[in-house]
């Protein structure tokens, strides 16, 4: 897509940090080029580390709140305003306990309200169960029955989930140049205090740059984010 002025981009992510790992450079670039971007989360991003019995404790609530604050900080590094961020308190890695129809309706609400031209969501083969569910409910919510504003749907890849499904590797068939935005992407990931790790963990600065560099090599670009085109409609 060349002219992004007034184009609306909806990013659907399971957890805070997936949006930055998957398409943080693209969010920063599209905002810079005049697009309107909205990011919605299907769950919070920290409670997978705790047992069911701990979920209601003040300690876990506080940690979850910090993670949500980090999401706002991270997305501000990409120049996204807080009013375009929609957090959700469904528990992380437990979306299979939420009726899928509720998740579909949540995304449908944003589609009716925001009327996106492009939707970015998870990849269908991610190791993380919430990512797979988010892909499925995104497909259901974006079926072309409302006002048909959606021109294209893409899946993004999320380091430390997508690449760990070894028998089903990510299909990269659409590339977006983020050469001028890789630094913003790294900065945004650093805002997620506890999520960054040392190499060779995939959520390290070196690995994030390495993937962007490799996707760039696939597409003749310095740094790129890769996507799978799920559907495009030219009407
Ligand atoms: Zn995630």
Explained architecture:
The chain has 235 residues and is of the alpha/beta class. It has a single domain, classed as LmbE-like (Rossmann fold). Helices cover 37% and strands 15% of the residues. The chain is built from 6 helices and 7 strands; from the N terminus they run βαβαβαβαββααβ. The chain has helices at residues 18-32, 58-77, 100-114, 129-141, 182-190, 205-219; strands spanning 8-13, 36-41, 85-86, 118-121, 152-156, 174-177, 224-232. It has a 7-stranded mixed β-sheet, with helices on both faces. β1 (8-13), α1 (18-32) and β2 (36-41) form a beta-alpha-beta unit. α1 (18-32) crosses α5 (182-190). The longest helix has 20 residues, at 58-77. The two termini are 14 Å apart. The mean pLDDT is 94. Zinc ion (ZN) binds at residues 14-15, 18, 128, 130-131.
Rg measurement, Å? 17 Å
Poorly predicted sequence stretches spanning 5 or more consecutive residues: none
| Ligand species | zinc ion
Major sheet details: 7 strands, mixed
Give the topology, please:
Blueprint: E1 8-13, H1 18-32, E2 36-41, H2 58-77, E3 85-86, H3 100-114, E4 118-121, H4 129-141, E5 152-156, E6 174-177, H5 182-190, H6 205-219, E7 224-232
Parallel strand pairs: 1-2, 1-4, 2-3, 4-5
Antiparallel strand pairs: 5-7, 6-7
Helix pairs in contact: 1-5, 2-5, 3-4
The chain binds zinc ion (ZN).
Residues 14-15, 18, 128, 130-131 line the site of zinc ion.
């Amino acid at each position: 897509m060349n002219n992004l002025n007034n184009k609306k981009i909806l990013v659907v992510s399971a957890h805070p940090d997936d949006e930055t790992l998957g398409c943080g450079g693209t969010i920063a670039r599209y905002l810079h080029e005049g697009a309107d971007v909205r990011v919605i989360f299907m769950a919070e991003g920290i409670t997978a580390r705790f047992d069911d019995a701990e979920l209601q404790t003040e300690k876990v609530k506080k940690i979850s709140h910090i993670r949500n604050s980090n999401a706002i900080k991270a997305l501000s590094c990409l120049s996204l305003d807080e009013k375009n961020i929609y957090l959700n308190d469904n528990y992380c890695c437990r979306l299979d306990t939420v009726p899928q129809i509720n998740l579909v309706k949540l995304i449908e609400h944003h589609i009716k309200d925001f009327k996106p031209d492009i939707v970015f969501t998870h990849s269908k083969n991610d190791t993380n169960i919430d990512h797979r569910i988010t892909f499925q409910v995104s497909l259901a919510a974006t079926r072309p029955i409302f006002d048909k504003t959606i021109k294209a749907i893409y899946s993004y890849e999320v380091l430390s989930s997508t690449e760990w499904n070894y028998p089903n590797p990510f299909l990269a068939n659409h590339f977006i140049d983020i050469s001028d935005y890789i630094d913003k992407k790294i900065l945004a990931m650093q805002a997620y205090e506890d999520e960054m790790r040392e190499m060779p963990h995939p959520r390290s600065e070196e690995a994030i740059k390495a993937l962007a560099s490799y996707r760039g090599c696939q597409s003749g670009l310095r740094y790129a984010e890769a996507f799978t085109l799920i559907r495009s409609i030219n009407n």
